Amino acid sequence: EVQLVESGGGSVQAGGSLRLSCAASGYAYGGYSLGWIRQAPGKEREGVAAIGDEGTTYYAEAVKGRFTISEDNVEKILYLEMNDLKPEDTAMYYCAADKWRLAKEVVKFSYRGQGTQVTVSS
């Protein structure tokens, strides 16, 4: 069974940085697209960034140039480096995985972790 465990969330001031991590287990790392989604109170879930199994990357327009997704294939850890954070980035961030979907479909990925909270104050 696919398991995803996020860590690294917290509270920062606007302009600050955080790095989220996601430890993946329960499947062969290759063959899955991995990514991050977020959901703020009262808002719909949105895709943030993803790495497709085919090697493509996806970033939401709102985070391009500020967030960077990367992965450690040996340790099976997915990262999201978040810089120049803004109050509108405040949300619960979830790690997500899917065997069949493309990176740009990250919001529809089948597997999600429990989430880690990111709060950005102005």
Account of the protein in words:
This protein is mainly beta and 122 residues long. 0% of the residues lie in helices and 50% in strands. It contains no helices and 11 strands. Strands 2, 4, 5, 6, 9, 10 and 11 form a 7-stranded mixed beta sheet that branches. β5 and β6 form a beta hairpin. It starts with a strand and ends with a strand. The model has no long low-confidence stretch (mean pLDDT 95).
Low-confidence sequence ranges: none
Strand content: over 45%
- Structural class category: mainly beta
Number of strands: 11
Distance between the termini: 40 Å
What is the ordering of alpha helices and beta strands?
Answer: EEEEEEEEEEE
List the helices and strands and how they pair.
Elements lengths: L2 E5 L2 E4 L4 E8 L7 E7 L6 E6 L5 E3 L7 E6 L4 E6 L8 E8 L12 E2 L3 E6 L1
Parallel strand pairs: 2-11
Antiparallel strand pairs: 1-3, 3-8, 4-5, 4-9, 5-6, 7-8, 9-10, 9-11
